[in-house]
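Case study: beta-fructofuranosidase.
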Amino acid sequence: MACTTEVVFKVRYSAGTSMSHPSLCPNKSNFLVVSKHGLGYRSDKGYKSTQVKTLKHKNYKKISAFHNDRFSSLSCKCRQSDTVADPVNEKRVPFLDGDLSLNGNGAYSSKLQSGGIDSLEEEAWDLLRASMVYYCDTPVGTIAANDPNDSSILNYDQVFIRDFIPSGIAFLLKGEYDIVRNFILHTLQLQSWEKTMDCHSPGQGLMPASFKVRTVPLDGDDGATEDILDPDFGEAAIGRVAPVDSGLWWIILLRAYGKCTGDLSVQERVDVQTGIKMILKLCLADGFDMFPTLLVTDGSCMIDRRMGIHGHPLEIQALFYSALLSARDMLTREEASADLTTALNNRLVALSFHVREYYWVDMRKLNEIYRYKTEEYSYDAVNKFNIYPDQIPPWLVQWMPNKGGYMIGNLQPAHMDFRFFSLGNLWSIVSSLATDHQSHAILDLYEAKWADLVGDMPLKICYPALEGQEWKIITGSDPKNTPWSYHNGGSWPTLLWQTIIISGLWWIILLRAYGKCTGDLSVQERVDVQTGIKMILKLCLADGFDMFPTLLVTDGSCMIDRRMGIHGHPLEIQALFYSALLSARDMLTREEASADLTTALNNRLVALSFHVREYYWVDMRKLNEIYRYKTEEYSYDAVNKFNIYPDQIPPWLVQWMPNKGGYMIGNLQPAHMDFRFFSLGNLWSIVSSLATDHQSHAILDLYEAKWADLVGDMPLKICYPALEGQEWKIITGSDPKNTPWSYHNGGSWPTLLWQLTVASIKMGRPEIAANAVKVAERRLARDKWPEYYDTKSARFIGKQARLFQTWSIAGYVVAKQLLANPEAAKILVNIEDTELLNAFSCMLSTNPKRKRSRKGINQSFII
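Here is what the predicted structure looks like once written out:
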């Protein structure tokens, strides 16, 4: 038999489809043959057995043959959409010659395992190649997991950006460059896709968390099919987490490709340069934060579930630093990049100083923290972040070796997360974010604490695990992140390779009130005032990684300006944000230059109001719904979009919630609902019409039903209930000013009277505010107008309260003025926007899968 023009083999499957492929012979003396032993190559030197695997991903089959250290793809020429056997139910044995088989327990066993390290490496390569995914007959990545016995695939059959990085490095070092190049360019195309959740879109530069290859019918051609890439930007992910790390890893891999292959043509392509700039635009966007570190929500990186890493986690900062350096190396020096390069260099300097200076701990630093003074108000304070010495955990005192140190997991106002995170520390070494001395000290720590960080299987993702009450409070009782499992102290072999936002919003609200009250619009129409409005809106509407339309902030960014566990998307900020957007829309002049800003503003209003009304609201009906939630739903139409565990419903709330009434919860993030009641956020939701008419009345019903708790002997509770015991220690960091039922932690603040009055008047129920004012009048002047009151029923003047507090006085005065002249409240309230109501109905009837389309779909890409 000789190989001439084409040799075709066919393999018949139970599904009735036939697979064929022309000869893979490199010359006329080599060809593919079929025997009872499987498939092999015939050559002049004799028959050589070859390993053949069946890949059945993305609803179609593929045969690949391993020959001369390379896999050759044999693609199916007769694919039928959705007619092949179910990839979940069909057991897939990737090797036909018996090298790898299923044992009696349903797990893989291998003949290669007896062959030592070399055989183990060969087996790893075989499995890596078995995980390859093909798009239009070219390899584009590797799936997250390829276990034939796992019936709950969820999204593990997709190509994840972060998961492919070690695969990509392995292929580069092996000299197999095509799969990495294809991956880089195809994921770049996905960057330009529209990505939405409830009509809110993150910044264009966001890279997907993952993608899947699907085979779908070809429009206009019956029976024909085509491959498409279907990305997930977090809209379908469990908890709806945004993949902040994807773009950073993409830049790092792009640089590695150029360094390894010497082929710089990929990174110099116009579309690739644009992709780099779009990612950098997201990362370097102006924001409210005073720190050079990237602000993210929980679950935005490798630890993609709720694990208390919200804020400025080390892993993101190390990847951010590495990506900035890589981008600087690859950006072409055209004039258009000058500003970007300057911003990039400035951020690199600030970021490296910040992390090296404030994230580093060793025995010397712990001794320094132990002697910190707190409540320092000055520019040259030593304890810049107001860290309480009691935050040093007991385990660390014993655990820290004399020789060695590490970068802590996170840093925020009044909060240091002292857990050790492997990826962040290792990548701090790789990227030179850590100094040479710090890098050696991190490795010294690994040697000194080998049993803890390596043990029987490297490498601990973090140390130590969250346990007991700490686990319940921080993870929300996540059943997948139980102590010493998964992200919570589990061991991951893959690790071996490696400010004050509220001010601007209040300024806009006050500016509108001035114009409404005086009739003088000349102030808001001044050029400098218009510029000021736009600058604040630019900060608020800047492109970001977040999938949610709510503003992402750190703890202490609003009236509650200390650590109280309100990081993320606190209700107070969202209510003021909504009110400020409406106010700004009323005041912006209609010059042409504001057209884009006005469009962005309207889009955000629609998405924000829907999001808060739909997901922040709780009453007895909603609590019953949450109580019956299913978890770990992976789909676009999941009911439990944020993967909330029913056990998170606190026992106090079950008894406390009245049958008539409800409220907006304090915060919402992936796998986390903060069920505390916050007065300012709820009252301003009424004033701004962020809450519906029904919800507004229900909030006031709650005040009446729970008068003793929310008003008591002095209005008005800032939040209810207080954090106590372990919860207080963990969430506030043992803040001595925020002890239970004091200050921000369940204290009562007379200044909130005026906001209760505005809300009550707007809803036609001024008697509620009038009754609260009567309560305050009994003792407010006698007590010399204190800032706040302590105890559950507000019987004591606050332990550290200042007397003759101006806003306590002003809050009472405004309440009295408004009760005397209710019409005056109109300068502050916003009325329901009918256009927004129409937008809601459209949103509720729209399928999120049908909404998504590629931006610039006619744009051509050369691969």
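For the exam, be able to explain this: Residues 151-283 form one domain.
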